[in-house]
Amino acid sequence: MTAEIISGREVAKAIREEISQEAAQLKEKHGITPGLCTVLVGQDPASVSYVTAKGKACQELGMKSFHHELPEQTTQEELLGLIQRLNQDDQVHGILVQLPLPKHINEAEVLYAIDPNKDVDGFHPVNVGRLVIGEEVFPPCTPAGIQELILRSGTPTEGAEVVVVGRSNIVGKPIAIMMLQKKAGANSTVTVCHTRTRDMAFHTRRADILIVAAGKAKAITADMIKPGATVIDVGVNRVGQKPSKKDPSRMVAILEGDVDFEPAKEVAGKITPVPGGVGPMTITMLMRNTLRAAKLRA
Ligand code: NAP
């Protein structure tokens, strides 16, 4: 039987409505409008489009959006100075420094300078620690989006075998920790695979929930999936170009996930597409963290 498609676009839309209502209530009761400040150093085209999308999402949800655009040659001290000012700014509840930063800047030092209570990306070691001990305040956005997709698709997690492919600090490790927690929506038995894993298919075939964040197109084939499993494909791989639907004179990237989607959907019970699966959830979770940061202040 063909799998049910988990639409990240639809789930994100529903969560955005909830966030927008909560933001309006916060303003009414406490006079606080959640504010997110993005910081961009240089003009990397992908980064420019990400920060633009974040600003647009703020406006759509009735939040304040601030933006600082700094030249490529900005020094570490100048950037740290800006972060100190944003840490003190009462209108700014969330600070997001768009990565990657230019090579002459020490990324870790910059991220660690952000006030942990404004770290809506959830990358500060204080927030990583809070996540590990089960007192998460700002879960990192992509893993938080993955967990919401699992929950809202009605997939049971309690006692489920969860297999995560990938162990990065931004996706693989945090989602493994989140699914392991002793709480509702988690309580799973978690296995994490990586490039040194012997016989990966042995593990993936046991998974009731398979989360793939490898960054390798078609790394997971249909024969590696347990029939009926829920498959969350985090991968975004640019595998070619095609003319844009809106403007055929412009070329756009052809995107593929880490799962060989067409055959996989004949085996899985539920599956996310690429694009339109995990992608739309990430910015939505950033908005949710910004709302949480504003509520902390209230
Ligand atoms: P990453 O830092 O490159 O990490 C990839 C991980 O996958 C590593 O742990 C690597 O193992 C493992 N891996 C790679 N190939 C493998 C294979 N053939 N078998 C088993 N393990 C393998 O990537 P990331 O930042 O976590 O991102 C992963 C993917 O998700 C990328 O395609 C990225 O574009 C996408 N992504 C999407 C979103 C979104 O919002 N949709 C957000 C973040 C990331 P080793 O540790 O052994 O090298």
Structure commentary:
This protein is an alpha/beta fold and about 300 residues long. It has two domains: about 30-115, Rossmann fold (3-Layer(aba) Sandwich); about 140-280, NAD(P)-binding Rossmann-like Domain (Rossmann fold, 3-Layer(aba) Sandwich), CATH 3.40.50.720. It has ten helices and eleven strands. The chain has helices spanning about 10-30, 45-60, 75-90, 105-115, 125-130, 140-150, 170-180, 200-205, 260-265, 280-295; strands at about 5, 35-40, 65-70, 95, 160-165, 190-195, 210, 230-235, 235-245, 250-255, 270. Helix 7 (about 170-180) links the parallel strand 5 (about 160-165) and strand 6. Helix 2 packs across helix 10 (about 280-295). It binds NADP nicotinamide-adenine-dinucleotide phosphate. NADP nicotinamide-adenine-dinucleotide phosphate binds near residues 167, 172, 193, 214 and 278. The site of NADP nicotinamide-adenine-dinucleotide phosphate (NAP) has 26 residues, from helix 10.
